[in-house]
Amino acid sequence: MRRIVLFFCFAFTLTLAPAIYKQAAHAAPGVAGTGEVNFADLAERLLPSVVNISSTQKLPNINDLPEMPHFPPGSPFEDFFEEFLNRRGPGGIPAVPPASLGSGFIIDSENGYVVTNNHVVKDADEVRVTFHDDSTVEAEVVGRDEKMDLAVLKVKMEKKFPAVSFGDSDKLRVGDWVLAIGNPFGLGGTVTAGIVSAQQRDINAGPYDDFIQTDASINRGNSGGPMFNVSGDVIGINTAIFSPSGGSVGIGFAIPSNHAKTVIDQLIEFGRTRRGWLGVRIQSVTDEIADSLGLKNAHGALIASITPDGPAEKAGLQTGDIILEFDGKSVDEMRTLPRVVAETPIGKKAPVLYWRDGKEKKTAVEVGELEKAEESGLIETADGGSLPGEESGLTIESLGLTLNDVTAQSREQYKIPADVNGVLVQGAADASEAAEKGILPGDVIVEVNQQAVKDPKSVTDIINRTKTGGRSSVLLLINREGDVRFVALKLKK
Known about the structure:
The protein is of the alpha+beta class. Helix content is 18%, strand content 34%.
């Protein structure tokens, strides 16, 4: 059976050595049109607003690389590594910095604002934008948001190319026509058409997943490009594809414009995001949980824990409450709440409808700011990592792992024995040492540096003490379905 892979990085990466291509595809939403759609007229009007983006990535520091092995004179391995170094350069570093290609679109031609995906420009030394007339200029990164994979660039435009407007992605229906324009495989100015295949897709790309799925052909390099409806409005930003080979198989995903607009406005105004924060960890409400709590239908978000001194605690919410509505918006499922809270203005007194003791109750929560909570330590961010969302685990960037508490639900899902306690591995970053050493979602970290751990915070505490002590690696004791093993991981700087 062929394995189907979900690619998140749509940038087309070019290096002189073999590389793992991080890919992202684009899917877009479209507002239904009546009668015949003239894609030629639409493409002619929209093509000048779409740009190609190229970025040069930073080369690794030669001092951070392991020393090459030494062999006796005349050894066949000596010739092999000499040839390798001649191709790659000193220390195995490529002679030419790797570059990535992606797409973007102009939203403000007067001020030169261009929107793309964060992964297209992440860790780049230089970013360049190529316009429809093949002119190329340097771009400044105004702001980036890793949680929703968005970035805003600013360029000086000698010639004013037309800007495009955002449409209302909430009006999309499955079956609506959409048009995608981008830079697949670096070819530039490529137009594809399709329909909206599905909506509200959760592909485990981040805490605010709510993607539009399309069958419009999208490939590597389309990342960050726009998806238009038949009126010529942007209703999605292409971000990921589902593919066994890395090429388009008609399953692409786009960030809905209504979710992206708030983030883009914040990046332009503040250079960063300012998301609403509730101060809770939540989990799904299963049929069994709903039945045990006297709730007729399984819906809402169950509060698993509350941040001390956070907005939820101050409003009187408790562990075990089920949030049914927030700020007048229905919470039909768990993943709805983080997005609704994030989009709520900071400082607003938001009404909350919740379930407790077999009845509906009401309160009001003064919405906090997620980023300030992270900076102040109310939310542990693990040596520069980030807590992606209310329902997500703790991302520890120095390990390349996302961790969470071991719950009854995770025990059932991953078949974790009742006598195994520790911290759940929720995910391992692509190309990380943790992933290379076979750490998988569902693994339980029992010990770190031979010290028992019970929650993600205890892991970060040990990591911080390890760094303070001048050590550069940690030893994990991993339990997988009853089998235990030690795994040593270097701490990324």
